[in-house]
Every structure is written in structure tokens, then in C-alpha cells.
Amino acid sequence: MKKGTALLASLALAALVAGNALAAEPIKIGVPGAHSGDLASYGLPSLNAAKIVAAEYNAKGGIMGRQIEIVAMDDQCKPELASNVATKLLSDKVVAVMGHICSGATKASLPIYNEAKIVSVSPSATTPGLTKSGENPYFFRTIANDDDQATLTANFALNSLKVKRVAYIHDNGEYGKGFVENNRLQLEKAGVKTVFSEAINPDAVDFSAVVRKLRREKPDAVFFGGYQPTASKLVQQMKRDRVKDIAVIGPDGLKDEAFIKMAGADAEGVYTSYPSDTSNLPAYTKAVEAHVKTFGTQPGSFFPNAFAATQALLNAIDKAQSTDSAKIAAALRKEVVETPVGSISFGAKGDAAGVGLSIYQIRNGKYVETDYKMTLK
Amino acid sequence: MDFQYFLELFFGGLTRGSIYALIALGYTLVYGIIELINFAHGEVYMIGAFTALIVAGLLGFTGFPAAGILVVAALAAVIWCAAYGYTLEKVAYKPLRGAPRLSPLISAIGMSIFLQNYVLLSQTSDFVPFPRLLPEFDFLEYIGYIMGPSDFLILVTSTCTMVALTCFIRYTKMGKAMRATAQNRKMAMLLGIDADRIISLTFIVGSALAAIGGVLIASHMGQVNFNIGFLAGMKAFTAAVLGGIGSLPGAMLGGMVLGLCESFTTGYISGNYEDVLAFGILIVILIFRPDGILGKAKVQKV
């Protein structure tokens, strides 16, 4: 008897599930990013954010009666993989994309999304040209771009650190070089002397020569453009070669717990730019609580931005009541969304207004937000 | 001041060059005996660094002094890599000994990719911090501006290793057998030298040298990753060709020349041109001396 009931119940359940599936295809959202490789710590938190927001919508019955399905794909932040991933997402019939994570990968994938007229919202790609070129009408982002970052760090160096002579080191990548060049242009205009500006090969056996040059030239600050594995090698070498009293300033790629773990005490004092701490916002607290509840850990890098990106995207689909890209893009430009990074909306070119940006410093092994900040318009 | 800067760059270049030299010796030893470019050699260097990391991690719990851990970890890496070198030869190169010269070359590239991915899958794709085990020598404080303790240790260790290797090749029976095999394998076999054993020995010695290089650089840079062997291997290969592949003093000289060139380029011109100039010099030297700096000057190959 008991067995029979269970069987019936499960049959009924199966019918229900099957019925739902027949009734409405899920709305697929592609989430590409670095899910493995050196830079997985940048990409995985975003995937978690997308899963949480999607689950929240699904619990309320989805959008237009359709469930949200997250299609995760790993591009390892490599441009050559990213274009493959983009093509694969399209053949999976995703409605829109929340990603990619790294600027290079995003740049490589955008021509493919443009061609197919697919909306993508990146939580972390900061290369200015992605929006400023005007070539990507379906691209949005929930993070300040490098121009804004560089404006903040250059002003900080000028007004707060009062630098006179500055050195620039970058990894010759799109992201790192862009950040450094942008700072250099702004600082040179303000009369700050450039001591030198050059590239290092992240895979080199050591950085002794460039560090010795730094020690000889004694600039007030050095701007580093690149990602945290290279930065940690650089600051370690600086410490070992007894380079003192030179402030190190980096982009948001250096704001990653892995940097502190890798460089240890040598990372002490490093300045980075990063989205302002919004942990006092109710939306933020709620998002983090959801992460702790679902995954049992504190969220990692770019989580709030990815959360905001997914929220904005799903909200736009909901408001547009359509999976048509043009309508989604129009809704993204119109709606203001309460997100963990603040009340944001998107400008004509796809940059988010309302996002705040702050200078952080590593003190006693922790990132501490300083008073130096700005809000994007 | 400027002379001091010159010295700083000079010793920085020597440090880097001695690492290149240690790895280059492995390329050149193998090439001298079986005329094969062992492209998997850079990966052996990387595996050395990983082995030392694992052993040091385990020993870290025992409360050993740091310097002791470094020595034990380095020994473990040397033994482990020697075993890798031996196996590598038996698996990937020995079956192809009679084959056309391109076949073992492809096999070598295959092994390189295999080993990289094997470490990627079995360990991690992340950068892993390497414990700081190098002792801070107090007596070095006054030259601290010219070279740090780890530069000093790298220079001393690699110099000792190279001297030991030279003595081994020149004065021991096995070294003599290696030289004989390099000069004429058939003749050496006729005279009762077990060529297979000598080839295995060459791989073991070469891999052990790479392991020492790997441990030194890992503790110098403070991090390891499955990919570190690629560029280091490429540069060391360049150094071996620069010095004259097949020649032991050539590999050492080539490593030093490359290291110094890179250091001075970055120091006096710009880091942007570090690799450009290094490889530019390689091309120029090869145009005027196609066999490398010491390639033909000495008949002795190993």
C-alpha cells in the first residue's frame, strides 16, 4: 500500500516536471568566465552570483512562466578560448550573457555576440574601448572602466600621495598596459615626471633588473598594470632587494585575497582601486547572506558586480516581457535597479552610472577602504 | 653610484644566467650524446620545483629549521627528477632510437605537453606560494644592495654544481665513458661501454641539474605554477645554442651571456626590449658563428 502511494506520487511528480518542461522552455543565460586556470578566483564568484539570482527568480516562478537556466562555460580568461565559448553559447540558444570576466576575453567574444545581436553584461571587464568605441550596442557592464579607475588612481597619487616622480610597469596585456598608460597621460598632464614606463614578461625567471632600476631611480610611486600573480612576484622581489618608500598602486586586479596569500607581508601597503564597499546596503547584505547560505563560504572577487549584472539583466527581460535583444537592451537603458553595488542604470554606451570606486590599501594582511573615492555619473 | 648600479645589474644577470646555465646543461648533455633536443626538459625543471614544494610542505609540520627543509626538499627534487629523466628516456626516446631524427623530436614535444597537463590536472592550475626557506645571511648585509641572499645562494649553488659536473665528466670513469659515447657511440660500444646505460645516466644527470635550478628559482620567486617550465626551458635552450649545443662550457657561457644581456637591456635601455635583444643577440652570434660561441672551438662534445 505504502509502496503504491510512493509510486503514484513520484509518477505524478514526473508528470508535473515533464508538463512544465513541455509548457515552457527555460530562459537560458550564458555565464562564461574563468572557471579554471590561474584566474579562476576572478570568475567563480560571478558564477555563484548568477546561480543565486537565477534561483531567486525561479523560486518566484521564473519570468513569463519560464524558468531561468544558467549555462556556465569556462574561457580561462583566454581570448582564443573565449570566442569558442561565445560560439558554443550561441549554439546553446542562450537569450543573453552575463560575462565575460576578463577584458581580453570579452573583447574577443563581442564580435560574435554583436553578429548574433545578443546582450551581454560583464561584471568585471574594464577596458574602456568596450563601451567607448560605440561598436558594441548590446554590451553593458556593472563595473567602472579603466579610464575611471585610472582617473581615481591618478588623482589619488596626485592629491593624496603628492607624487612628483613616478615609474610605470605593466605586463604588456590589454588590461595592464591600458591602466598604466592612462595614468601616465593624466599624471604627465599634471606635471608629474615619468621616470620610466616599461613592460615585464610575467613568465620571466625573475624581475631583478627592473627592480634594481626602480631602486636606483627612487620614484615616489610605481604604478603596476596587470594581474595578481605577476604583482605578487614583483612586490616580493622589491622587498627582497630592499626597495623602500615607493608606493605601489595597482588596478582592481590586485584586489584579490590570492594576492595577499601569495605575497604575504610583502603586499603590505599596496594601493588598489576597487568598487566602493557597499556592505551597508541592504541589497548587499542580502546577497552575501544568500551566498553563505547556498555555498557555505564568503563570496569572492566581483561577486557584487556579477550579482548586480544578473539582477539588471533578468529585470530587463522581466520588464520587457520578451527575450528579444533589442527590447532587453532598451529595458536595461531605462530601468534603475537596486543592486549590491548601489542603484544603477546604464548610459547610452553601456557603462553603469551610480557605481562607486574607492582606493583600498593592504594593512595588516587585509584590504582596507580609504576615504578616497568617487561615484560614476 | 653608476658603477654600483652596473654591479647590481651584473650580479642580477649572473644569477639569472646561472639558472639558465643549469637548465641549458641538461639540453646540451643530451644533445651531445644522442643529438636530440629534449623539449620536455623545461618540464622536468617545473616538476623539480613542485616536488620541493610538496616535500617542504610536509616537512613544514615537523619544525625542522628552514635551511634543513630546503636541503631535504632539494635532495628529494633531485632524486625524483632523476627518476623522471630516466623514465622519460625509456618511455619516449629509447623506442625511437633507430627512427628518423624528427620522430624523437615530436615525441619530446609530446612529452612536454603531457607533463605540463599532468601536473595541471594532478596538482593545480593556480599559482602556489613557495615557502620562504632561504636563510638571511647576516654577513651579506653590507653587499645587500648588490645581491640579496637568494641571489648569493643561487650563484654559489650553481657554481658548485657546475664545477662538480665538470669534474665528474673529466675525471671519473663514467664521465670518460660519456665522453667516449658522445664522440663515437659505435666505437665506444665496441670497446665494451654499455651505451644504453650511459644514455640513461645522461638523462639522470641532466634532470638532476634541472631540478636544482627549479628549486632555486622557486624559492627565489616565491611561487610555482605548472607553466613555469616553458619560458625557462626556451631561454635555456637558447643559451645552449648560443654557447654551442653539445658543449658543456658553452652551455654555461651561453647561460651567463643571455642572463647578462637581459639584465643590462632592462637596466640601461628598457624592459620592453628584454626578450627582443636577447634573441637578437642569438641571431647575430649564430650568423657569425653558426655553431655557437664555443661550438667548434672544442672538439670535446660532452
Q: How do the strands and helices of this protein lay out in sequence?
A:
The complex is a heterodimer of chains A (377) and B (302).
Chain A: H1 2-23, E1 27-33, H2 40-59, E2 68-74, H3 79-91, E3 96-98, H4 103-116, E4 119-122, H5 129-132, E5 139-141, H6 146-160, E6 165-170, H7 174-189, E7 193-199, H8 208-217, E8 221-225, H9 228-240, E9 247-250, H10 257-263, E10 271-275, H11 282-295, H12 303-320, H13 325-334, E11 337-339, E12 342-346, E13 352-353, E14 356-363, E15 366-375
Parallel strand pairs in A: 1-2, 1-3, 3-4, 4-5, 6-7, 6-8, 8-9, 9-10
Antiparallel strand pairs in A: 10-14, 11-12, 12-13, 14-15
Helix pairs in contact in A: 2-12, 3-4, 6-7, 9-10, 12-13
Chain B: H1 2-34, H2 41-59, H3 66-93, H4 102-122, E1 128-129, H5 149-171, H6 173-183, H7 185-190, H8 195-221, E2 223-224, H9 228-243, H10 248-269, H11 274-288
Antiparallel strand pairs in B: 1-2
Helix pairs in contact in B: 1-5, 1-8, 1-9, 1-10, 2-3, 2-4, 2-8, 2-9, 3-8, 5-6, 5-8, 6-8, 9-10, 9-11, 10-11
